[in-house]
Amino acid sequence: MSSHDAVIQDKSPAWMPFMVGAQTAFYLVVLPSLMARMSAALDLSLPAMALPAVSTALGTIVMVFGAYVTVRAFLVLSFVGKNWPGGQTSYIADRHIYAFVRHPLFWGYTLFWIGVGLWTRSPGRIILATVLGLALAAWAKVVEEPRLASAFGERYEDYRRSVPGVFPRWSALIADAEELDFAALLAVFLVRILASLLWRIRAVGVENIPTEGPVVFASNHMSIADPYAIVLFVNRVIHYVTADEAYRDPVLRWFLRANRAIPKRKWGRDISAIRAMRDHVKAGEAVGIFPQGQYNWDGGCNVVSDEVYRVLHYLGAPVVPITSLGAHECWPAWSSRPAFCRWEVRFFPPVNPCDYESVADFRREIESRMFSLAGHPPVPRRALVSHKGIIIVAWGCVKCGGAATLRETQSGLECSKCGARWTVTRDLRIVDEKTGQSVVESEYRSALIQKLRNGEMEDAPDGVFNLSRAAKVHKIGSASSVTDLGAGTLRLDGDALTFSSSDGTTQVEVPISNINFTFLDADGHLVVSEPDGAYELDIEGDSALRWEDYLMAARGLTIRRWPTAEEIRARSRERGRSTSLRDRPS
Predict the structure, then answer these.
(1) Which residues neighbour 271 within 8 Å (Cβ) at sequence distance 6 or greater?
(2) What dihedral angle (degrees, nearest 10) is formed by the CA atoms of 26, 31, 33, 39?
(3) Residues β-bridged to residue 319
(4) Which CATH number does the domain housing residue 331 bear?
(5) d(CA 352, CA 367)
(6) CB-CB contact of 451 with 470 (8 Å)
(7) Which of 369, 427, 487, 581 is the most buried (most CB within 10 A)?
(8) Distance (Å, rounded) from C-alpha 224 to C-alpha 377?
(9) Whether residue 234 sits in one domain with residue 170
């Protein structure tokens, strides 16, 4: 396993979008305008082209193919080389469409203008396109290739000797189309532009990124944009493990498949997902996983199930732990829009499972790095500052114990029950306006959970739960097997979570003792897993995170965790004696 040959630059420059604009204007506006004027003058002194129908048809084919190669080469170089356009490439681009022909950008651009000349039946354009191609080839020979040889040494020399400069290798073009989907390349490029404008995103520890061989990238999950923040600095396809709930939407399903994601059933052990991960690492590919299984809604740390580390240990591939600074502030999971903020991605040296006989030791080594920034002061946001949606985390009043009594104001939060007020700062601190005491979101939520466990919340006095809300409920079998149970009333007491549909046709009862796992999905809906399936709860007028915290307290848990093997076997025996859940007509 090797890391990249040279790191020229480990962050996209802030002016990258402007460089992209300048390059685009030159190649799509300035140069075409010059060629149009010069070709018009040349055509006056040259004979007209024969066979206009053949010329137009051939020109269309050549023009489209040249445009495809050019755009494809542009996106692949941005993906593989990194920090380009707008900066020198950090990695050598010697695969994908760059195995088709050397300098495919120049090759495709020249071919495009030859096609334009044929299509317009302009011999002047064809001559100018040929001259342009020769000029680009000379530039590549005199400037580009010596610079790349100096940067990447013998590896580039091997590439130059093995890949043709004029007559392409067609099999490589077919392989390129199969390896990298166009939509995935375009998405990475657009995110790079967005990241440069919004987040000034940079990386630390890029020397720890393997460029070949099997590897698993394991990161904490602070933001909706986490996968692409990592991909910005990794020059290979990462097969991300993705909850199969995301595959319900046909557009998102197409996009995830284009990005070679691995679907996983989130509310249980998914053997097919583990097999897919194993097959990818056996093939020497990269897999990406967010061990926490859901976003850090409050910017803190979600506890990871032991099952995740057992799977990673079983795979046997080196694990690169990743953590982020500023990701939560850049785009909190509870916010509908990103903010201007600094974002730093840190890559740590790979952790080899073979070096750890104990899964517990293996886990400690990964988490000591993946969560190394826990407790770090939050990063201030510069612009687009908004706290709309933060009541998902601040779901109650720490002063009076009012549940769902906070409302968002222009400056922060206010309790409708006791009148207490808080200011939400640019770095998402929650400041008590009366005392001046400042806490981060995770600390505020922890105080609410402690108040809940002490029996001091108004709808759970002395640990007696009495929650009731309108909700829409779906029963989930898989991404394609979802049953709408309708709208109705959701209730939680100390014994069970129950749902009664408004039309009286459906009643669901999930005993607290049978709940295996709870989490919030990407839409912010609460998912409750029990032995016979899972339920998605779209709770109206309340925080789904609050309901998860109440369910945790009702189950007597202090951390989110999957039940142990012993607990599962005990529950299985108990289910043999009684039915744990009923979906029945009233």
Answers:
(1) none
(2) 180
(3) 216, 351
(4) 3.40.1130.10
(5) 14
(6) no
(7) 369
(8) 21
(9) no
Query: Each residue of 250-260: pLDDT tens digit?
Result: 888 888 888 88
Q: Mind listing the pLDDT tens digit for each residue in 202-221?
A: 889 989 999 899 999 999 99
Side chain identity at residue 56, one-letter code: T
Query: What is the domain count for the chain?
Result: 4
Q: Which domain holds residue 413?
A: 387-453
Longest dimension (CA), the chain: 96
CA angle 401, 404, 408 (to 5 degrees): 110
Q: Is the separation of the CB atoms in 440 and 446 below 8 Å?
A: no
Can you read off the two tokens belonging to residue 448?
């609410």
pTM, to two decimals: 0.84
**Tens digit of pLDDT for each residue in 32-45?**
899 888 988 888 88
Residue where a domain stops, chosen among 356, 381, 406: 381
The DSSP letter of residue 467 is: E
CA distance 137 to 199: 37
Asked if residue 32 and residue 143 are part of one domain, the reply reads yes
Token pair belonging to 325: 């600074």
Residue with tokens 């020769």: 134
CA-based nearest residue to 101, from 111, 91, 114: 111
Q: How far apart are CA 253 and CA 525, in angstroms?
A: 19
Q: What residue type is assigned to position 300 of the chain?
A: G
For residue 458, which phi and psi values (nearest 5 degrees)? Answer: -65, -30
Q: 131, 124, 130, 128: which is closest to 42 by C-alpha?
A: 124
CA 133 to each of CA 49, 64, 106, 310, 415: distance values in angstroms, whole numbers, following the listed order: 21, 17, 7, 56, 69
Tell me the per-residue pLDDT of 398-424, one tens digit each, with 9 for 90 and over.
999 999 899 999 999 999 999 999 999
Length of the chain (residues): 586
| CB neighbour list of residue 117: distance below 8 Å, 6 or more residues apart | 39, 59, 123, 124, 125, 126, 127, 128, 129
Tell me, yes or no, whether 504 and 526 share the same domain. Answer: yes
Give the Cα separation of 207 and 223 in Å (integer). 24
At which of 179, 211, 233 does a domain end?
179
